[in-house]
Amino acid sequence: MSAIPPERLVFHSLHAAVDWILKHPNAREDLQKAIDKGALSLRQGKLTAFPTETVYGLGADALNRDAVKLIFKAKQRPFYDPLIVHISELQQLDTLVLEFPEKARRLAEAFWPGPLTLVLKKDSRVPDIVTAGHPTVAIRMPSNPWARELIHRAGTPVAAPSANLFGRTSPTTAAHVAEQLSGSYEVLIDAGACRVGLESTVLSLAGERPLLLRSGGVSREQIEEIIGPVEVPAKTRAGDAESPGMLPNHYAPVTPLLMVEDVRDYAENRDIGCILFEKPDIDFQGPTVQVSGNRNADEIAVNIYAALRSLDGKGLRLIVCEWCPESGIGAAVNDRLTKASAKPQG
Question: Does the N terminus or the C terminus of the chain have fewer Cβ atoms within 10 A?
C-alpha cells in the first residue's frame, strides 16, 4: 500500500472500485467539488464526514462548541469521551495548545502527517466539549491529502471521531458511514477505502512521562526510537479518558465476536462467520471473509473492520476470529479485537 501514491484512491475490492468509478465519471473534479462542499459545511457549523488514512471521520469546526455538539448527537456519543482535533498545518497549533514541547516536535517531524495523535496541554480557545473537560487536547495531522485539503479549505481545525454510532465498528469506506449515520451530516466525501484501516496511535505528552493511551498505526517501538521509553497506563474508567478508544468495550459489531485459537474449529457451523488470515485449507460451511493471504498484520489492519461489518450484516449467531500476529501494527489490531469482543459492562 505504501508504494501507491497518496493521491491515488484504494478500495477493499474490485467491485467497490468499479462502483466508485461509475458514480464519479469525472473523478478528480467530483472529488474537488465534494471537498469544497465539505469545507463550506464546516464553516457553516455543520457536519462533514470525510476520509483519513485511518478511518472515516465525522467532522465539525473544533472551535465551534455548537457544531461539535452535533457530533455527539449524531453518534449518540457520551460527553465524557473526548475528540481528536485534526489539523492541516502546524500553524493551526497556535489556537489549540499552550506549548509544543521538544518531544512533540521530534515526533511530528517523524510521523506527521500520519496516524499519530499527540495529547498536549490545551489553549483556552478549545471548547471543553471537545476535551470532555480535561485540560488537554488530542491533535493529529492526517496523511490523507483529501483530509488535509478539506481542513485547509475550511480554515479551522476539525474535531472528528470515527463516523459511526458510538461503540460500534469503525468505518473504512463512505458506504460504511452511510449505513449508520445517513441523514446526520451535511456532506459525505467518498474517497475510497482507508489505507491504514485502524485508528491512530495516541500518545500523551502532557505529563512528566510519555503515556501510550492507544495503540495504532505508529508502533510503540517506533515512538521509543524517537523519544525514548514510553509507559502504558492502567485501564481507564468512563469519565477519566484523555483520548477516545480507551474504554474496555468498543469497536463492536452487533453480532457477538469470539476470539479463538483456530477458526477451523468452527468450519462446520453454518450460522457462524469466520474471519480468515490466510487462504483456508478446508471448506467452511458458514460465510467467511479472508483479510490477508499470509497472516500479514498490515493487510489484516486494512481489512479487519470491513470484514466485521460484512459478516455483521448476515444475521449470524456468532463471528469468530483468531489473534493477529503481534508484529508492527498487529498489537493495535489485537487491541481493537479485544475491545470489540468484550462483553458490555453493567
Answer: C
